[in-house]
């Protein structure tokens, strides 16, 4: 069973539906006990970093995420959920993240130059940095996925698994051992997104 | 590189797609869910559902349709029509919508955009504007294009984006239904005024109109149309291929 962590940030309807579509059991939950029993864990999220980090901490679910990572279970953050895995974010001030991945979250405006829209909203092609990343088992480089974000992870080092070109190469996927992250929304990325979720279930 | 988006719009009344719809070889498709699925398969980048129902029963059917679509279709979904309060945002977001489009609701209550952006994030709030030239000035029209509000359009758009609208759909009443191409003059003015994504609507009659749009105005992010897709004058798969051949980034 895949636990989809519900900590009051964003709507999990599409994410739950996409696991149903690939025939994988998934449950939306805010129970640490259920997360402990799950084989895999997804940390979703949309909205502001500071608010989401606070909700995760208040609910005690940050500890459930750390525990799942320590136990060696595949854990994946999506969009803001991915950003929360890092050391810190510079979105409206400076806020600590879970510190499970090295690097920090910074505004894309610093890097993309003046001509491009903020947020990056739409479909962009994946550029593989770590073609061996288990999330890519069922897709090819150059397939498009759906992004909506104004901030992105920098300084990811070896964990940088894929980027997307948007005035600069922005972090699209990260991977270290059993820990994964997607800046884009696999649950909104058509067939390609479903294949990435399937690959996560096989990781 | 980010691709230009192609967005079919589905008008829904009492649970059915308005107008008889002939989609590819599917024949008459009146179920919005089936049509949404077919569009997704043919390469649509996003879907817009527009609720033109007046009754409460129709509204309940509409939310059922959104829920069922979100179960089967995994591309972004924007919902509009009858969005007047943040409770309306809540109602459609719970059914799996990703973005909510406001038009007359924002004109009636200009604080709606700001309130919704704070609650759900800028990326969730789409401003839709019906614009028409009156004595050489772009004016905002309300009530489906029937009523001149007297507001200057570029100023209105700038104000709503300042309040938190994360995307703007520009419907040109002047070119809508004429099928002789998008309103490039109007769209250029909007692109100069704001830095959020701009979606062109109104006037597409053939594939070339989309190519001209994206070639002439690199600031336009997406093209939206309804009947030319529904009636099969333009197939989305064909359009995407032609965009690619013309050097316009497209998701195939």
Task: List strands and helices in order, with pairings.
The complex is a heterodimer of chains A (203) and B (252).
Chain A: E1 2-5, H1 13-21, E2 26-29, H2 32-37, E3 40-43, H3 49-58, H4 61-70, E4 75-78, H5 80-83, E5 86-89, E6 95-96, E7 101-107, H6 109-112, E8 120-125, E9 127-128, E10 144-149, E11 151-154, E12 160-165, E13 169-176, E14 179-182, H7 190-202
Parallel strand pairs in A: 1-2, 1-3, 3-4, 4-14, 5-7
Antiparallel strand pairs in A: 5-6, 7-11, 8-10, 9-12, 12-13, 13-14
Chain B: E1 5-13, E2 16-17, H1 32-41, E3 47-51, H2 56-72, E4 77-80, H3 86-93, E5 99-102, H4 104-108, H5 112-120, E6 125-134, E7 137-142, E8 147-152, H6 153-163, E9 167-172, H7 184-193, E10 198-201, H8 207-216, E11 222-225, H9 227-230, H10 236-245
Parallel strand pairs in B: 1-3, 1-11, 3-4, 4-5, 5-6, 6-9, 9-10, 10-11
Antiparallel strand pairs in B: 1-2, 6-7, 7-8
Helix pairs in contact in B: 1-2
Outline the structure in words.
The complex is a heterodimer of chains A (203) and B (252). With 203 residues, chain A is an alpha/beta fold. Chain A contains 7 helices and 14 strands. Chain A is 28% helix and 32% strand. In chain A, the strands form 3 sheets. In chain A, strands 2-1-3-4-14-13-12-9 form an 8-stranded mixed β-sheet, with helices on both faces. The longest helix of chain A has 13 residues. Chain A is globular. By secondary structure, chain B is α/β, with parallel strands linked by helices. Chain B contains 10 helices and 11 strands. In chain B, strands 1-3-4-5-6-9-10-11 form an 8-stranded parallel β-barrel, surrounded by 7 helices. In chain B, strand 1 and strand 2 form a beta hairpin. In chain B, helix 1 packs parallel to helix 2. Chains A and B meet through helix 1, strand 8, strand 10 and helix 7 of A and helix 2 of B.
